[in-house]
Design brief:
By secondary structure, the protein is an alpha/beta fold. The chain is about 45% helix and about 10% strand.
Length: about 425
């Protein structure tokens, strides 16, 4: 199948999923509901501890069901396919906008990843927000994110020219820090806030470049009301200090990528589950106001909500330990990036393996294919690499070279 044929068919399938919101029976109201709502920093708004990631939103009716279960926070983006349109359909039909917290991103609808790069004009930031508002059938966003700080996929050639000899990751850190505090961005935010189009500014990061350091700069800058870092039980030793800094500055924290790769852990509605253990582990950390998890079906919705407000137990830790034992040598830790400077070909190892995770484990094939296609350096160069310095640099002993070659074959189309 050609790439354009796949993307075209995927777009048609996504459009067909935008359904009307049905009337729900009393039985639906008896399902498990959200038990805890936490204030997001100093914003004055309270979010459900388990909230809805709209990265693969299947229907407007699923949003209605989520609200019936007590979920009130919905995270979307222009580059999440038709996510904003589907969520907008729900907003229009439900007529409960004041009961919803809507978060979107400074992203381009036509690209994935579509986050606006360094060098974007003030009008660019305003334009993408106006586009989101139109698709969402609302006149304001509660939260707008500068998305994916530290991913390192934006241009850094200018920094390379001016600072020769600096490591590639350090060049990208400087570039990403500039994107975090870009004057055009901050000026646009000021204009958007004054016009009532956005209420709060946020930043997200799943690394792999200096995630904790960049998040800390955002927290202490006074510009950002909340942050959304990748955070799970498999890594992130610096996150606790970031949580303390955020609490000290009264900045909200929402966790993402909590499932640590979501490696083949099926739902278990009859008893405690891996997903519940993960959510409870994440939410037990002081300073975490809530977590966002991609919800693709009614079964997932009903299952995930059951973990709301529950205490983390010894049995939960046993499940996490079991997962670690099974997948510690197979999971590229989101946000790590320890191996990146070892690659002379500048392959963005962490990002490629994250796209592979989206394809294999998250069911987000279209997003994974588009993301990989956008990268300037593909992993096909790994076929001719003999000394595999990336594997020597990996602190977890992963077979990175073979993993990258598998990812390239999975994420590439025939010409």
């Amino acid at each position: 199948m050609k790439r354009r044929e796949f993307l075209k068919s995927s777009a048609l399938m996504s459009s067909a999923a935008v359904l009307g919101v049905p009337h729900y029976s009393h039985a639906a109201a008896e399902k498990a509901t959200i038990q805890v709502y936490n204030e997001i920093g100093k914003t004055g708004i309270k979010m459900s501890d388990i909230s809805f990631g709209c990265g693969k939103l299947s229907s407007a009716s699923l949003i209605a069901r989520a609200m019936n279960r007590g979920i009130n926070y919905f995270d979307t983006s222009p580059d999440y396919g038709d996510s904003e349109e589907v969520l907008g359909e729900a907003i229009k039909k439900l007529k409960k906008r004041d009961k919803m917290i809507i978060a979107s991103k400074f992203c381009d609808k036509e690209l994935y990843p579509g986050h606006l790069p360094l060098g974007s004009k003030k009008l660019d930031f305003i334009k993408v927000v106006d586009g989101s508002l139109s698709r969402l059938n609302t006149d304001y966003l509660d939260i707008c994110f500068v998305h994916a700080i530290g991913e390192g996929t934006t241009l850094f050639s200018a920094i390379k020219r001016f600072i020769p000899g600096m490591k590639a990751s350090e060049k990208k850190r400087k570039e990403e820090e500039k994107r975090l505090f870009d004057e055009n961005l901050l000026s646009a935010v000021d204009t958007l806030k004054k016009s009532g189009k956005i209420r709060f500014l946020a930043v997200s990061s799943h690394g792999p470049h200096f995630m904790e350091e960049l998040m800390t700069k955002a927290v202490t800058s006074g510009h950002y009301d909340l942050i959304m870092p990748a955070f799970n039980f498999m890594k992130f030793p610096k996150i606790p200090s970031l949580l303390l800094e955020a609490k000290k500055n009264n900045v909200g924290v929402i966790a993402m990528k909590t499932l640590a790769g979501a490696k083949d852990m099926s739902l278990d509605p009859k008893g405690e589950s891996f997903e519940h253990a993960v959510f409870k582990w994440t939410l037990k950390h002081q300073g975490v106001n809530g977590l966002v998890i991609t919800i693709k079906s009614i079964d997932e919705l009903d299952h995930y909500v059951k973990a709301s407000g529950k205490e983390f137990m010894t049995s939960d830790q046993a499940l996490l330990d079991q997962y670690k034992k099974l997948y510690t040598a197979k999971y590229c830790r989101t946000g790590c990036g320890e191996c990146l400077d070892s690659c002379s070909s500048n392959v963005n190892i962490a990002t490629i393996l994250r796209y592979q995770m989206y394809f294999q484990d998250y069911g987000m094939e279209k997003k994974a294919l588009e993301g990989y296609a956008s990268l300037r350096q593909k992993a096909d160069v790994c076929n001719s690499c003999l000394d595999t310095p990336c594997e020597k640099a990996c602190p977890y002993g992963l077979p990175i070279s073979s993993m990258l070659q598998t990812a390239h074959n999975l994420l590439s189309f025939n010409a």
